[in-house]
Amino acid sequence: MKTTALSLLFALLAVATMAQNAPTGHPDTSKPGWKPLFAANLSDASHPKSIWSVTDGVLTATEDKTIWTAVPYESFELDMEFKTAPGTNSGVIAYCSDTANWIPNSIEIQIADDYAKQWSESPKNWQCGAFFGHKGATKSLVKKPGEWNRYTVTARGRKLYVVLNGALVNEMNMDDYTSVERNPDGSDVPKWLNKPVASLPAKGFIGLQGKHAGAPIYFRNLNIRAL
Fold first, then answer.
1. Mapped to the 3 state alphabet, what secondary structure does 6-26 carry?
2. d(Cα 84, Cα 218) in Å, to the nearest integer?
3. 121 burial type by CB count under 10 A (0-12 exposed, 13-18 middle, 19+ buried)
4. pLDDT band (50, 70, 90) for residue 21
5. What is the DSSP letter of 204?
6. Which helix (H) or strand (E) holds 3?
7. Rounded to whole angstroms, how far apart are CA atoms 131 and 3?
């Protein structure tokens, strides 16, 4: 009984600590420590040539190819704006340890047009603000296609947080996700995510998914700060 009580106490303390560290809104990227995620000409990014481009400060891709940071990151804050098109399915990729085979070797924070039938009827952990395939957002705050959204992804070691349009909508402790079949909430893990999140390193490259599922995605004001 004493052991059970202690275990419960430690679990409650862990939840309280995570909640205490959770961001409550978007950061002020004008403060010291912030820098652009990529140079304006993408010279410091790893990406397929002629697919990703920047026009008037807006980054987009013509194919389903990912653009990566040239260096890996550990703890960080990543702040950006994104705009969907009808049917968009994209994502922010964190802690990628293998860019050639990124899907099972990273955590994807989903971007999707939740107004589109194919995504509105998908599992919650496939919708905007989700840790894709693992945990759905607490609420859907993504705007309609053609409108700009603000997204902040914060990674503090093995704890990650997602703020969408001013509200904290998701948080994850990587160590809780020990199965490749079932998530802690009982939902199924997609079969292509064949490595437990708990086994992934809390360090890696940051990426943005390109024109996936036939619909484009647009980014601007991408800024990052190492923690």
1. HHHHHHHHHHHHHHHHCCCCC
2. 7
3. exposed
4. confident
5. B
6. helix 2-21
7. 32
Q: 75 burial class (0-12, 13-18, 19+ CB within 10 angstroms)?
A: middle
pLDDT at 194: 97
Kindly tell me if the per-residue pLDDT of 224 is higher than 80: yes
Report d(CA 214, CA 220) in Å as an integer: 20
| CA gap 93, 211 in Å, rounded | 14
CB atoms within 10 A of CB 164: 25
What integer is the mean pLDDT of 33-46? 96
What domains are defined for the chain?
A: 2-226 (2.60.120.560)
On the question of pLDDT at 156 being above 70, the answer is: yes
Scanning the structure block, which residue is given the tokens 């190492």?
Answer: 226
pTM assigned to the model = 0.90
Question: Per-residue confidence at 213, pLDDT binned at 50, 70, 90?
Answer: confident
Distance, in Å, from the CA atom of 171 to the CA atom of 62, rounded to the nearest integer, reads 31
Weakest-pLDDT range from 2-11, 20-29, 152-161, 215-224: 2-11
What contacts 14, CB < 8 A, 6 or more positions away?
Answer: 173
3-state class of 118 per DSSP? helix
